[in-house]
């Protein structure tokens, strides 16, 4: 007998209500509030918001974790879980778990990342297309994907089809990249990592593939470097590439100059920040899951940000522990790290992560049920169905987790330790060693209560270097593991914590602070009382500059009774930073070799991998990049990413170089507007509305813009086939300026749309004047878009208009143009470029339009 249930009525909030409530929650931090509302507040496909603050979200998550806990002995209750995760203070589920746990409105996975691949050496078209479909199916469920191309036969190899010879792997890079760019993921595009072995004969083509502007823009690329190649570089000897890679009986074999190929890798990374480097033999040697390689756990690639090496069809969920919160009496001489509380919370975090696997298995079952119920033919949906069956099998057998950290930079500063110093590095190693021991101890204790992961076999793991390290550090833990097993096949990672760190209001991941102090601008009314006007722009609008302090730097100031309300000069701010524990500890200050050595030392206590960036100045040499790569290999890193200031990948550049670039890019526009301008008509989808923009051009470059809704009720109705015309300036009877748009209809007659500036909301027009005047003064288009994005716009409607203008103007930004001064909302990287009018992160591959 079935029982009808009535859906529970849920309270909903408007975007403005949720923003105001979360703004209060984050104590006025508008960036944190917007990130939370836009990315993590519970909402349905109609845009209804069901949570007002992160407290609601944390209650939702705690309720679901507690539900799973009830299945097992010694269960945690809802309040216990809530106290651990509330306020982003201690334990922070990241990304997909935060958005998806307890979310009834999405049929999506809780996994942040996946790796896929064919069994064996399949490089048929069927196998290649199967992978293409699998990555798309995963991306539509919010997952980032990685897969390796080393199985594809090299260019020129014989094939038994009409082509006669293989095209090699590069054309398929472009295919996978394009598929990624086509997948919508809640306002962003999919994220993809493509890798290949340096032993593959097409490795050089792979390394060069992204050097052509506009190519393979939807993927990150990394090269799997083996020890043999690294030794060939050091010893200056030739190296032999093979296909199949590392085969004792290869079908293709060629000997190359290792130094020459190494030079190309270093040069490309110096110039464009790609390819990334994966030290593959280190990854495999240290990998605990690879002890079960013959059972399907052979690692083949990594997720898009490189911190999780995975076998085909395995996935991982991420959780961060906020290290700053364990510092008692921070920024004082009495500051100390509470190791006892930290250990207790690591154990709880590992238990929560195991609960999240059960929640993920429920989500995967929902996905499988949906696929079964879909009215498509069985043959159409068979690949997707088998994909999720494989993912479920791996999750059940291995129960992999991904515990990491955030706020390492703030933790060290709060303890009075300078990031990069010998003392700070020693303390960081102690923290990560403790995290590893306590997480593994928790996994053993959980296995005692819940049973070990299905294929656990201590005999297989007895020679693994990571397991032996644990044994040497704590033999009691090791022998408990022999007795009870372990609940999870692998446990630890250090991921980028972009949006997570915005909400914890700390430094990101293992990284140092980027800047402790910076400046922003906001528009002000000069007639308001006590308003401070720092400058007036070319259209007469008044702006105030205000100082923004990094949250924990501000806390240091408060502890030391330093005024936060004072209007500091540049010199005073400089002296203030010099007094603080953040002095010489920013991302641009930290000694590069020290950072590499820190990563290598910490890596020994992380069973997966680490996402960390080594920032270099613009004048850094290629030789230095090569030196850092070699050092990273020698100290035991599993991968390394180096970004040179101002390289094509879009890292933030210094003020001085920004000024130089702006000067060189100025367009010599006339100071007086011509009466008639050629114009493009650009249509964009803006917040689910159809918008239209009229962009006046001089020499093919934007000079002014009019934009708004494209309909006959609230905006302008214009035939779809009209894509150009002219904007004519004239005067009204009262002497005010008038702008009309004129185009030829299909019969060749001129049709005029009158009064562009009066067709849209006057408030929009004020901002349009600001942007248009900036365009007239020749500011480069990518900087116009940055200017729009930096405007302190209050109302939701104005913010919507800003998005529309931004999207319309991005059409004129050349593909590959660096987007300086912006951060990826997915992984917090500053390596963003404009591609096909959208901001694309070259680190994780995520993309945002508008």
Automatic annotation (TrEMBL):
Reported EC number(s) for this entry are 1.17.4.1
One of the GO biological process terms = DNA biosynthetic process
Per UniProt, residues of the Ribonucleotide reductase large subunit N-terminal domain are 29-94
| GO molecular function terms noted in the UniProt entry | ATP binding; cobalamin binding; ribonucleoside-diphosphate reductase activity, thioredoxin disulfide as acceptor
Record bears the keyword Oxidoreductase:
yes
What name does this protein carry? Vitamin B12-dependent ribonucleotide reductase
Q: Please name the NCBIfam families in this protein's record.
A: NrdJ_Z
Cite the Ribonucleotide reductase large subunit C-terminal domain residue spans from the record. 111-643
What's this protein's function? Catalyzes the reduction of ribonucleotides to deoxyribonucleotides. May function to provide a pool of deoxyribonucleotide precursors for DNA repair during oxygen limitation and/or for immediate growth after restoration of oxygen.
The record's comment on protein family reads:
Belongs to the ribonucleoside diphosphate reductase class-2 family.
Q: Does the keyword Metal-binding apply?
A: no
* Membrane-crossing segments per the record: none
Q: What class of enzyme is it?
A: oxidoreductase
What catalytic reaction does the record list? a 2'-deoxyribonucleoside 5'-diphosphate + [thioredoxin]-disulfide + H2O = a ribonucleoside 5'-diphosphate + [thioredoxin]-dithiol
Which cofactors, if any, are listed as required? adenosylcob(III)alamin
The record's keywords, sorted A to Z, are: Cobalamin, Cobalt, Deoxyribonucleotide synthesis, Disulfide bond, DNA synthesis, Nucleotide-binding, Oxidoreductase
> Which InterPro entries does UniProt cross-reference here?
RdRp_reductase_class-2 (IPR050862), RNR_lg_C (IPR000788), RNR_lsu_N (IPR013509), RNR_NrdJ/NrdZ (IPR013344)
């Amino acid at each position: 007998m079935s029982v009808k249930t009535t859906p529970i009525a849920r309270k909903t909030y408007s975007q403005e209500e949720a923003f105001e409530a979360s703004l209060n929650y984050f104590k006025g931090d508008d960036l944190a509030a917007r990130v939370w509302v836009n990315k993590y507040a519970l909402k349905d496909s109609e845009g209804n918001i069901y949570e007002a603050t992160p407290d609601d979200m944390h209650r939702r998550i705690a309720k679901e974790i507690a539900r799973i806990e009830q299945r097992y002995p010694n269960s945690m209750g809802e309040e216990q879980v809530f106290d651990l995760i509330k306020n982003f203070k201690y334990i922070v589920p990241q990304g997909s778990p935060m958005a998806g746990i307890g979310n009834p409105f999405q049929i999506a996975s809780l996994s942040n990342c996946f790796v896929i691949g064919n069994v064996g050496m399949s490089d048929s078209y069927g196998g290649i297309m199967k992978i293409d479909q699998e990555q798309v199916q995963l991306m539509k469920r919010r997952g980032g994907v990685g897969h390796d191309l080393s199985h594809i036969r090299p260019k020129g190899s014989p094939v038994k089809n009409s082509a006669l010879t293989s095209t090699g792997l590069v054309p398929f890079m472009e295919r996978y990249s394009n598929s990624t760019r086509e997948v919508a993921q809640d306002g962003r595009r999919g994220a993809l990592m493509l890798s290949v072995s340096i032993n593959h004969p097409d490795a050089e083509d792979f390394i060069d593939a992204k050097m052509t502007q506009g190519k393979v823009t939807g993927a990150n690329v990394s090269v799997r470097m083996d020890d043999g190649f690294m030794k060939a570089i050091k010893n200056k000897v030739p190296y032999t590439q093979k296909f199949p890679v590392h085969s004792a009986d290869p079908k293709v074999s060629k000997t190359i100059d290792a130094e020459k190929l190494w030079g190309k890798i270093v040069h490309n990374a110096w110039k464009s920040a790609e390819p990334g480097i994966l030290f593959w033999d280190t990854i495999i040697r240290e990998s605990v899951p690879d002890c079960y390689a013959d059972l399907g756990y052979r690692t083949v690639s990594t997720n898009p940000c490189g911190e999780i090496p995975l076998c085909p069809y395995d996935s991982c969920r991420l959780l961060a522990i906020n290290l700053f919160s364990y510092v008692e009496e921070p920024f004082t001489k009495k500051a100390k790290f509470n190791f006892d509380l930290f250990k207790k919370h690591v154990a709880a975090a590992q238990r929560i992560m195991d609960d999240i696997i059960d929640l993920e298995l429920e989500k995967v079952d929902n996905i499988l049920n949906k696929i079964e119920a879909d009215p498509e033919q069985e043959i159409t949906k068979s690949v997707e169905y088998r994909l999720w069956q494989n993912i479920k099998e791996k999750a059940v057998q291995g129960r992999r987790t991904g515990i990491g950290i955030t706020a390492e930079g703030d933790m060290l500063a709060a303890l009075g330790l300078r990031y990069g110093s010998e003392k700070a590095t020693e303390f960081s190693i102690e923290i990560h060693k403790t995290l590893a021991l306590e997480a593994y101890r928790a996994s053993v204790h959980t296995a005692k209560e819940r049973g070990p992961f299905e294929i656990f076999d201590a005999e297989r793991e007895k020679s693994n270097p990571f397991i032996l390290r644990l044994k040497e550090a704590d033999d009691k833990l090791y022998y408990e593991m022999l007795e009870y097993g372990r609940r999870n096949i692998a446990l630890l990672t250090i991921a980028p914590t972009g949006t997570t760190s915005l909400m914890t209001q700390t430094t990101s991941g293992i990284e140092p602070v980027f800047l402790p102090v910076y400046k922003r601008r906001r528009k002000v009314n000069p007639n308001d009382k006590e308003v401070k006007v720092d400058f007036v722009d070319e259209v007469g609008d008044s702006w105030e500059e205000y100082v923004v302090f990094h949250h924990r730097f501000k806390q240091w100031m408060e502890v030391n009774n330093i005024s936060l309300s004072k209007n500091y000069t540049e010199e005073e701010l400089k002296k203030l930073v010099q007094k603080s524990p953040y002095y010489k500890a920013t991302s641009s200050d930290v000694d590069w070799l020290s950072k590499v050595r820190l990563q290598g030392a910490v890596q020994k206590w992380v069973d997966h991998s680490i996402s960390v960036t080594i920032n270099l100045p613009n004048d850094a040499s290629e030789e230095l990049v090569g030196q850092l790569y070699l050092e990273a290999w020698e100290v035991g890193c599993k991968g390394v990413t180096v970004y040179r200031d101002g390289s094509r990948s879009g890292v933030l550049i210094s003020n001085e170089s920004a000024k130089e670039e702006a000067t060189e890019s100025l367009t010599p526009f006339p100071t007086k507007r011509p009466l008639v301008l050629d114009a493009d008509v650009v249509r964009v989808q803006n917040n689910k509305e159809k918008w239209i923009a009229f962009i006046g051009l001089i020499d093919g470059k934007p000079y002014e813009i009019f934009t708004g809704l494209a309909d006959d009720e609230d905006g302008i109705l214009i035939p779809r086939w009209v894509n150009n015309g002219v904007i004519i300036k004239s005067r009204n009877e009262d002497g005010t300026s008038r702008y009309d748009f004129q185009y030829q209809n299909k019969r060749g007659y001129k049709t005029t749309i009158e009064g562009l500036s009066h067709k849209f909301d006057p408030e929009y027009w004020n901002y349009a004047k600001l942007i248009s005047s900036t365009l007239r003064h020749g500011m480069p288009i990518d900087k116009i878009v940055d200017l729009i994005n930096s405007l302190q716009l209050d109302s939701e409607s104005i913010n919507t208009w800003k998005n529309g203008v931004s999207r319309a103007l991005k059409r004129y930004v050349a593909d590959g143009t660096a987007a300086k001064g912006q951060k990826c909302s997915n992984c917090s990287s500053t390596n963003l470029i404009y591609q096909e009018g959208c901001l694309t992160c070259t680190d994780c591959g995520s993309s945002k339009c508008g």
